[in-house]
Design brief:
40% of the residues lie in helices and 22% in strands. It is an alpha/beta fold. The strands form three sheets. The protein has a six-stranded mixed β-sheet with strand order 7-6-5-8-9-10, sandwiched between helices. α1 (3-12) packs across α6 (174-183), α2 (45-58) packs across α3 (74-86) and α6 runs antiparallel to α7. It is globular and about 50 Å long.
Length: 211
């Protein structure tokens, strides 16, 4: 399954919605012309299996690894599916340690020195992903890399991963999505231009389109 095919299916099942004329409001308050919910993939068995296949194919540059780690919450299901297919141990990483019980941030068995491949569903700013990476490193793990389904392609995210010395790869990305949406007439030429300008400076785009 190519990045273009994945992008097309994400649009088809409405895991990704594009609405440049009537932007969505993110939890941060920013206005955005795109909304992504990759959890919808889980409801489509054939596509779900194809996504797992793509994850396994894209994991090759990060070999060898001993453990698959899903980032809570979006990466947990995909981490479990990949680990099951590859017959590897699976753990998951919370956004922060629990305030009760054992107070774990990492759930599952992880031993110092083990090599870990991290799985996410979406890369936005990269903050939650890199918090998970740091938790794994603090536990003595070696993070070989991170894989996600989709990235908005923010420059700040790319910079953050580079500074943290984490290799990351996605199955598809924002530029690919726009090309696919345009070629399949999901969006107009005017919409394409609006969408193309968004991820270069999402804050400025939001301010302009909040009026």
């Amino acid at each position: 399954m190519t990045p273009e095919h994945i992008a097309y299916r994400l649009l088809q099942i409405k895991a990704i919605k594009l609405s440049p004329q009537k932007p969505f409001t993110w939890a941060s308050g920013l206005k955005s012309p795109i909304y992504c919910d990759n959890r919808l993939i889980l409801s489509y068995p054939e596509f779900r299996s194809q996504v797992v296949d793509a994850f396994i194919r894209e994991s090759r540059p990060f070999v060898p690894f001993d453990v698959i780690a899903g980032v809570a919450t979006g990466g947990i299901a995909y981490g479990a599916l990949i680990a099951d297919r590859m017959e590897l141990p699976m753990i998951y990483v919370r956004s922060e340690a629990k305030g009760h019980g054992l107070g774990n941030q990492i759930e599952g068995r992880l031993e110092a020195g083990q090599r870990v491949l991290v799985i996410e569903d979406l890369l936005s700013t990269g903050g939650s992903s890199l918090k998970a990476v740091q938790a794994l490193r603090d536990a003595g793990a070696v993070v070989t890399g991170l894989l996600a389904i989709f990235s908005y392609g923010f420059e700040a995210c790319t910079r953050a991963f580079k500074e943290a010395e984490v290799k990351a790869q996605t199955l598809t990305d924002y530029p690919t999505l726009l090309r696919v949406a345009s070629s399949n007439e999901v969006i107009s030429r005017d919409d394409f231009d609006l969408l193309q300008s968004w991820n270069k400076d999402p804050k400025a785009w939001s301010e302009k389109h909040s009026v």
